Amino acid sequence: MRIALLEDEQEQADLVSAWLKAAGHNCHVFVRGKDLVRQARRETFDLFLLDWEVPGMSGAEVLVWIRANIAEPVPVLFVTARQREEDIVHALSSGADDYMVKPLGKLELLARMDALARRIRPSQRQSEEVLEYGRLRVDCRSRRVKLDGREVMMTQKDYELAVFLLRNIGRLLSRGHILESVWGQSAELNTRTVDTHVSRIRGKLELTPENGWRLSAVYQHGYRLERVAADAVRQDAP
After folding, report:
1. How far apart are CA 75 and CA 46, in angstroms?
2. Residue 71 Rama label (left phi>0; alpha psi -120 to 50; beta)
3. 232 domain-assigned
């Protein structure tokens, strides 16, 4: 997952970030709430980990902003030293999905994160070996893609991008998110790379409305792959 961590204590941030990276996640650390919000306006994340007591905009205020401005059902997990019942109730009633009190345990944190991801997006089965959608079939074991039973020749990155989009059908994904997840690179690198590969797989896999797909660019943000109703009637030339 691509995770945004709001934590102003350097030692704690380094520790949690190391746990997440060792578990295979990408972690972006923010010290100030306003910095996280600024980034979340143009970038997408799979999960937010929020501390409450941070400079300026608090974790609780960031949570309110997330629920008011991000349409996608992104899970939010509070990780804070505040343990009063009223604080926990306030966070959960404001839209937090779970709440953990410091000091944190590595295994419990990872388990709670995985549980939230499964609950929010149960259809996103990363271990699924075959992705099949009508005319399109992707065998993740052999890394072979077939359209109408015919194999589609794809480069390694085209294939990985196609699988990433298919595993996230319906989600808005920023160019930085795609670049980091598929290429393993920083979102600061050239995002035109994403645009080029998206255009290529749209053509190769026929991801168009007349074929039941819409792979659309969202201005100044990224891409969303959706299933749509294919045209019921096709006009034949006389």
Report:
1. 7
2. alpha
3. no
Same domain, 33 and 115: yes
- The per-residue pLDDT for range 85-106, each reduced to its tens digit, is 998 999 999 889 999 999 999 9
Whether residues 18 and 111 share a domain: the answer is yes
Cα–Cα distance, 76 to 68 (Å, whole number): 13
Beta-bridge mates of residue 5: 29, 49
User: Which amino acid is it at 96?
Assistant: A
pTM of the model: 0.79
Q: Which two tokens stand for residue 158?
A: 């085209």
| pLDDT tens track for 18-55 | 999 999 999 999 999 999 999 999 889 999 999 998 98
The overall longest dimension of the chain from CA atoms, in Å, is 74
- Please state, in angstroms and rounded to a whole number, the distance separating the CA atoms of residues 80 and 52: 6
